[in-house]
Specification:
alpha+beta, 5 domains, 7-stranded mixed sheet, 6-stranded antiparallel sheet, 26 helices, 46% helix, 13% strand
Length: 778
């Protein structure tokens, strides 16, 4: 498999020659067995069919063994031999993966035992934090999660680590505590105490990260928090609460909302590390008065038998008065924080879109924005680095290249900007201009470009890799005419993109399609319905929704043109969410596509964007219903759910290091050379993706812990207000090299199954048949 693609996609004279040879040999259409075509004797044919069904059900080793038996009996059918060879190569890949995964597990287990032994020698508590990090990495490589949770060394590590986490909380070292609770929450997803402790730490970390005095260039000298709360007024909160009353998925419990909103204000008032921003927090008497009065209102809300929406608004109004009389916070900050707390008891997807949030939200849902068309990154006290220009944009046409450094924006040093400030300064209304000063390290020169901002369309569909001209290539197997496309997210323009692509691929003779929805967070419901409709025959139910009021809403496929006559495999993982799950679930239920990979995220809730003011300066993104698949299953995952999302027909799970390799492969392929850039060396590609690729456990804390911590996602404890642990430097600098090859096992599995399907002519079994064949996998 890899040898074939290396030949097809290789560079240089030799590769071109081999391609010509392959075209000559494969000019005739690939032969395939028609359903029912005999293979050898009747017994051999039955064994062949049984092997194919096992492979299609994910029982690859058993199926491969059946087909090996036929080959060992001397059958001379070329097609059986090819299937046997493909399976043998994939089995070798799986054996290699298993060996590496097992070696990793043994290493991490040894590290945990070493951490415990080190603590017993010197009693430095940082060893417990290290131990629980190592436990998390071991958990990511285990095959039997329940057996793992019973490991004696894990039990010992949890005992020591939770004691230390409690001490960190008492010392207000929230980041250090979160580094323990975060991994524990992952290992024990149904443990409520770990989940609540992690969220408690996050709340403190967020305040310390958000409220700083550091001005940000690109916001007119304002800090990021000042930009975030700009134009917020109390009426927005009142309107939001009333929309919750009329439109929320369930009957809201307004007493919980009032208590949570007041708790958020108390949390702010008692957070010492934001006192440099809000000077009145340094006045203990004022803080004491504010807290006493807010706590009295909190107790009143907690003791109330029942509150309605106007009662909640009354508590909010009273908090505004208390804040006005004490002068503790700017009014917009108090409104923002009270609403943040009041929404927390609803669900994690209901949220406010304040005036400062709307432009970015619209950019992602509509798939367009006004700017110059470059993907950038920024590390603290460094220039802005161009990851890639976007094809056909002002930056691309001006010759800006991957790897260029932006040293100045409109004459101001780029060192002054955060990534958010830089984006705010570079983007702007179409027809206006921005001046960028570029340093090109490869040519040791600096120059300036004046770019006119234009409306930039965000393309959501990518191919397997780019050709020399930078165009995406989709046909991954020209012999079998198997195509591949990856959809990064859903926007209003996604369906148009996909229709155009599928039409072109069909004109090229596409016979099989790998549709990659891994990591796709979703998007508008209409886009999910339209994408599903494209691949289903008419009158097939796609999705239904059910809320608190009214009849369920049901949507089925239309009578328009459909592409339903070729086999499909959809790739999913735990980060495939929302619209991705609707598409995968609908096509799976109707037997239109096989799902390969891992179980999806489980976001089965509908959010409506509800304007709150006449000028639509703020909106409420409110959960109003749940999604249901055509078979009646709800996708949504609650905190205590044991089933959710879409389960794969064929499960191939990647561990963390493999995910890093796959992500790096994707990033390298996405990078577009500049208009006049001759080549991107392997070293340049590695440098442009390296910051995302750490495999050291210490560098891969929970993303939620570090949300917004730094421009490159790496935390800086001292800069962000959290004290370094006094024992931090005593920990060993362990090497944990990622030795996994740059191979995507899930893609390889999909390619294998599509080749076997097209070569054999045998259809994949239905999901119910698979459960009969493989009850242990259900």
């Amino acid at each position: 498999m890899r040898r074939l693609r290396a030949t097809l996609f290789g560079n240089g004279y030799l590769a071109a020659t081999l391609i010509l040879l392959l075209v000559a040999v494969s000019s005739a259409p690939a032969a395939s067995l028609s359903p029912g075509t005999e293979v050898g004797s009747k017994a051999q044919h039955e064994k062949w069919l049984e092997g194919l069904r096992m492979v299609s059900a994910g029982r690859l080793s058993e199926g491969a063994e059946r087909i090996r038996q036929i080959v060992s009996e001397g059958i001379r059918d070329e097609r059986v031999q090819r299937v046997n060879d493909w399976l043998a190569e994939f089995e070798q890949l799986q054996r290699d993966r298993s060996e590496r995964i097992r070696a990793g597990y043994d290493k991490y287990a040894a590290w945990v035992n070493g951490d415990i032994a080190n603590f017993e020698k010197d009693h430095k508590r940082a060893w417990w934090r290290q131990a629980i990090q190592d436990c998390a990495w071991a958990f990511g490589t285990t095959e039997d999660e329940d057996a793992f949770r019973a490991e004696p060394w894990l039990v010992r590590a949890i005992e020591g680590a939770t004691k230390v986490a409690t001490e960190y909380e008492g010392e207000q070292k929230w980041r250090q505590a979160a580094r323990i609770y975060g991994p524990l929450r992952g290992i024990f997803p149904f443990n409520k105490s770990y989940r609540e402790a992690f969220e408690r730490c996050q709340s403190h970390i967020r305040l310390q990260l958000v409220y700083t005095n550091e001005p940000v260039w690109g916001y007119g000298g304002r800090s990021e928090w000042e930009e975030a709360v700009k134009d917020i007024v109390p009426e927005m909160a009142r309107a939001a609460f009333r929309r919750i009353d009329t439109d929320y998925l369930r009957e809201p419990v307004f007493a919980e909302a009032a208590v949570a909103g007041l708790d958020q204000l108390l949390l702010m008032a008692k957070e010492p590390k934001i006192a440099e921003v809000f000077k009145k927090l340094q006045d203990k008497d004022v803080v004491r008065e504010f807290c006493m009065r807010i706590e009295a209102k909190r107790q009143q809300a907690q003791e109330a038998d029942e509150l309605d929406v106007e009662d909640l608004i009354g508590f909010f109004e009273r908090a505004l008065i208390i804040n006005s009389e004490t002068g503790l916070f700017p009014q917009a900050v108090l409104v923002h924080e009270f609403v943040l707390g009041a929404l927390r008891p609803l669900d994690k997807f209901s949220d406010m879109l304040w005036p400062a949030d709307l432009a970015d939200f619209n950019k992602h849902t509509q798939g367009k924005f006004s700017g110059v068309g470059i993907q950038i990154r920024k590390r603290r006290n460094e220039p802005i680095e161009v990851i890639s220009p976007l094809e056909g944009t002002p930056a691309y046409e001006a010759g800006i290249q991957a790897g260029d450094l932006i040293t100045k924006i409109n004459g101001e040093s780029a060192l002054k900007y955060s990534i958010y400030g830089a984006v705010a300064e570079i983007t702007g209304p179409a027809g206006t201009f921005v001046r960028l000063t570029i340093r090109r390290p490869s040519e040791d020169r600096e120059f300036a470009v004046r770019l006119e901002r234009q409306e930039i369309k965000i393309l959501t569909i990518k191919g397997y890799e780019r050709d020399e001209e930078g165009h995406w290539q989709y046909m991954v197997d020209p012999e079998f005419k198997i195509a591949y496309a990856r959809m990064t997210h859903f926007t209003e323009g996604t369906t148009e993109e996909l229709i155009s692509l599928v039409r072109d691929l069909r004109n090229q003779g596409m016979r099989g399609f790998i549709f990659d929805l891994r990591g796709n967070p979703g998007g508008p419901l209409k886009a999910a319905v339209d994408v599903s409709d494209l691949f289903l025959d008419a009158d097939k139910q796609i999705v239904s929704t059910k809320g608190r009021f009214g009849k369920p809403w049901v949507k089925s496929s239309s009578d328009e043109m459909h592409y339903s006559d070729f086999p499909m495999i959809i790739l999913t993982n735990e980060f495939s969410a929302s619209a991705s799950e609707i598409v995968a679930g609908a096509l799976q239920v109707h037997g239109r596509a096989m799902i390969l990979g891992e179980r999806t995220f489980g976001k089965g809730s509908v959010q409506q964007v509800l304007p709150l003011t006449a000028r639509e300066m703020a909106c409420l993104k409110l959960t109003t219903a749940h999604y249901y698949l055509p078979d009646g299953r709800c996708l949504h995952r609650e905190d205590d759910s044991t089933t959710w999302g879409v389960d794969p027909d064929v499960k191939i799970k990647l561990i963390g290091k493999e995910m890093v390799k796959v992500r790096d492969l994707q990033l390298k392929k996405e990078i577009l050379k500049g208009k006049n850039q001759k080549r991107l060396s392997a070293e340049q590609l590695e440098a442009l993706t390296r910051y995302r690729s750490s495999t050291n456990p210490a560098d891969n804390e929970s993303d939620e812990t570090y949300d917004g911590a730094d421009d490159d996602g790496k935390g800086d404890d001292k800069a962000n207000g959290d004290e370094e642990d006094e024992e931090e430097l005593e920990l060993p600098d362990r090497e944990d090299e990622n030795t996994f090859p740059e191979v995507d096992p899930q893609f390889e599995g999909a390619l294998l199954l599509l080749r076997i399907r097209l070569e054999s002519g045998e259809r994949w079994p239905t999901r119910s048949t698979q459960w009969v064949l493989a009850p242990d996998d259900a």
